[in-house]
Amino acid sequence: MPSPTEQHWTPVHGEPYRPVPYRPARMARPESLARAAELRARMDERRTVRRFSPDAVPEQVVRDAVACAATAPSGAHQQPWTFVLVKDADVRRRIREAAEQEERISYDGRLGEEWLAALRPIGTDAVKTHLTDAPVLLVVFQQRYWLAEDGTKHKHYYVDESVGIAVGLLLSALHQSGLAALVHTPSPMRFLSEVLERPANEKAFAVIPVGYPADDCEVPDLVRKSLDQVLVEV
Ligand SMILES: Cc1cc2nc3c(=O)[nH]c(=O)nc-3n(C[C@H](O)[C@H](O)[C@H](O)COP(=O)(O)O)c2cc1C
């Protein structure tokens, strides 16, 4: 039986295949080039922020960013995601407490030396002030399966890929709307389902604090791979 909060769903795009015309206006080449260059420069300015100002953010900007994320392509259009917007300070405090409990075990050895060495240049440790300093958290859940009205379970396909793409769109939308974010993946993340009382078909994917950088915010001096290093043209 589904847990009380588990939602049933009926795909609205059910059989049969129902095509509709799609004829977006083609963008003129100069405009296309200009927009691409502008977006590339803008995206290059995005940085992961771990020190947030407690200043409030316009919540509608966050909702719009989630709506952008929810336009992501997904395996068989199953849209296997849930975004929980956490504003309540007490809930953020409970998430921080539980996350730091797991992170202490991780940094005290659970991660292993190779992983800890990879994290050293990033400068992270088990203290997660961003979970209470940022004015809002977006907790992203993957829906591993969906439940039909009759209670039967149906598998979702390509859940990791779909939710990863949605989070990419989310980060882009937040950045382009002037907000900073961090993808935080405490491991294990089961506590998020408990604190947020999420149903059994959902598995936490990431906690994303959203806000403005603190006045004294610093980020690691990282170098991104060049285009030549990441693009192979055949
Ligand atoms: C899947 C994923 C998981 C991440 N997990 C964490 C995390 O748990 N804690 C953290 O501080 N940063 C985390 N990050 C942020 C990365 O460390 C960061 O994106 C990377 O260092 C590059 O920095 P930049 O985003 O400023 O370009 C994660 C990023 C991704 C994509």
From TrEMBL:
Q: Keyword Ribosomal protein, does the record have it?
A: no
EC number(s) of the enzyme? 6.3.2.31
Region Disordered: start-end pairs: 1-23
Identify the residues that the record assigns to the Nitroreductase domain, covering every copy. Answer: 45-212
Q: Name one GO molecular function term.
A: oxidoreductase activity
- Read off the InterPro entries from this record: Nitroreductase (IPR029479), Nitroreductase-like (IPR000415), Nitroreductase/BluB (IPR050627)
Q: Where are the transmembrane segments?
A: none
Signal peptide region: none
Kindly state which keywords UniProt assigns to this record, in alphabetical order.
Flavoprotein, FMN, Ligase, Oxidoreductase
Q: Which CDD domains match?
A: iodotyrosine_dehalogenase
Pfam families found in the cross-reference section: Nitroreductase (PF00881)
Q: What is its EC class?
A: ligase
Q: Which Gene3D superfamilies match?
A: NADH Oxidase
Q: Provide the protein name.
A: Coenzyme F420:L-glutamate ligase
Source species: Streptomyces hundungensis
Q: Which gene encodes it?
A: fbiB_1
